[in-house]
Write a structure and sequence with these properties.
Layout (H helix, E strand, L loop, with lengths): L1 H10 L2 H18 L5 E4 L10 H16 L12 H10 L14 E4 H7 L15 E4 L5 E4 L2 E2 L2 E2 L12 H12 L16 H6 L27 H15 L5 H29 L4 H12 L20 H9 L4
Antiparallel strand pairs: 1-2, 3-4, 5-6
Helix pairs in contact: 1-2, 8-9
């Protein structure tokens, strides 16, 4: 920095001022601990059973390094220096006194210069699927790690081969699964389905299959199921661009869906009145762990009876 300051006072060049600022930032970074300096020494060892082969390999490596941008090779001619460098190249040897070929490096770029293999291999051990890497390497893929299913995302433009890649992945991992369920649009996995001896199930408005979104599959009706039905109906009839109109529309749909369940229950209860006591006991058993009160259910944790106004209100609205 002192030399650059003197040159700048004499010549006044802007390039010297830029170099001076660069040196100042570097010294500040080192002084504050943001950068760590290292002395690095790179050694290339060459083996061959014959002297001729050793010379040939050394020449090939020398040409390869010299062709690299900014790289240079130094060969030792003194036996003592060669012996010291040979010992310094042993794994774990840190007591070498030969420091004449040391290079200055900082931690920001030293890791990129270390001659360690960084070829991506993923999970080659016990891999469920194997693919070719971009550097002639093999990449292993596992759908389960430690018994936990792994999520995956495949991103690519149209026609990039996403469906083909997924078809290959499913084919390789097929033996690890009892069955596969794929929900898609466009029959991208038709070939994979037919390779397992099955046929795709096509669902469209004019088809013979119907999805009964009102069926609870034997489970108690809850608000999540009603909200899902409302969302599906709202999607089918089309959504409004106005948020307020959309909320009003969904509220009306929710009222009709809920009323549909109530009317259906009353119609069913009139035909199967003998089953009502069993249904009531089941409803009490379902609501009791949640701490929710149900009409006709006695809660042992309630110390005081309900007010008369609440009981009259419940009689006036039995559907609650």
């Amino acid at each position: 920095m002192d030399r650059l300051r003197g040159d700048y006072r004499e010549e006044g060049k802007h390039s010297i001022a830029v170099a001076l600022k660069k040196k100042e930032r570097k010294i500040d970074s080192l002084a504050q601990g943001f950068s760590f300096p290292f002395n690095v020494q790179y050694l290339i060892r060459v083996w061959d059973p014959t002297e001729t082969g050793l010379q040939s390999k050394s020449a090939a490596i020398r040409n390869a390094v010299n062709n690299m941008n900014g790289a240079q090779v130094f060969e030792t001619s003194l036996p003592t220096s060669a012996r010291k460098l040979f010992y310094a190249s042993w794994p774990g040897w840190t007591a070498s006194s030969y420091i004449y070929r040391n290079l200055y490096a900082e931690d920001q770029y030293l890791a990129d210069m270390l001659p360690f293999s960084s070829t991506f291999t993923a999970h080659l051990k016990d891999a469920e699927a194997i693919y070719d890497g971009t550097n002639g390497n093999l990449v292993g893929v596992k759908t389960f790690v430690g018994g936990t299913p792994q999520h995956s995302v495949l991103i690519g433009m149209t026609g990039a081969g996403k469906s083909y890649h997924m078809d290959d992945l499913l084919s390789q991992t097929q033996l690890y699964y009892h069955y596969n369920v794929i929900i898609e649009e466009g029959l991208s996995y038709k070939r994979f389905t037919e390779s397992l001896g099955e046929k795709p199930i096509l669902i469209h408005p004019d088809g013979q299959l119907t999805i009964n979104y009102l069926d609870t599959q034997g489970l108690p009706l809850n608000q999540l199921h009603i909200a899902t039905a409302v969302a599906l109906v709202s999607k089918m009839i089309g959504e409004s661009s106005d948020p307020e109109k959309q909320q009003l529309r969904q509220a009306q749909i929710g009222q009709y869906v809920n009323q549909l369940y109530v009317d259906t229950f009353h119609e069913w209860a009139g035909k199967h009145s003998e089953l009502m006591p069993d249904i009531q006991r089941r409803a009490c058993a379902v609501r009791a762990p949640r701490g929710q009160a149900v009409a006709g259910c006695r809660s042992p944790a309630r110390a005081h009876p309900q007010p008369r106004r609440a009981r009259r209100s419940r009689r006036a609205h039995p559907e609650r």
